[in-house]
Amino acid sequence: MKNLIQYVEEQTAREMSQFDYFKAGDTVSVTYKIIEGQKEREQTFRGTIIQVKGTGVTKTFTIRKISHGVGIERIFPFNCPTLVSIVNHQKGRVRRARLYYLRNAIGKAGRVKEKTFVKRQTAEDKGRKYSWTFGNK
């Protein structure tokens, strides 16, 4: 029985690895299928990740967005066949894994700052910056 569970978890782990890596605070857009009778269409939900919960097959994530002044939260399971794509638009700079405080924040306080990456200077780059010449010209 345990081998069967491990097999199923390995199969779903491969399927889940097709999506970009993200964590709480990131701004993502999730495209998913909606089936209404015989029709099938895709819809996109763009917002901030509030939490990532669980492991393996039961892993889920919650996205929050503000639409016309009303907060909307949606919980998506990673192992959902209706998920088409997850695109990470912005890395958020947060110090928490659960961002429940965003529910009460209004206006600018409800925003998450963007994480900026600075390229490190190597010793060669620093040497070019200060090009000293010694001795005769």
TrEMBL record:
Keywords: Ribonucleoprotein, Ribosomal protein. InterPro entries: Ribosomal_bL19, Ribosomal_bL19_sf, Translation_prot_SH3-like_sf. One of its GO terms (molecular function) is structural constituent of ribosome. One of its GO terms (cellular component) is cytosolic large ribosomal subunit. GO terms for biological process: translation. This protein is located at the 30S-50S ribosomal subunit interface and may play a role in the structure and function of the aminoacyl-tRNA binding site. Belongs to the bacterial ribosomal protein bL19 family. This is Large ribosomal subunit protein bL19.
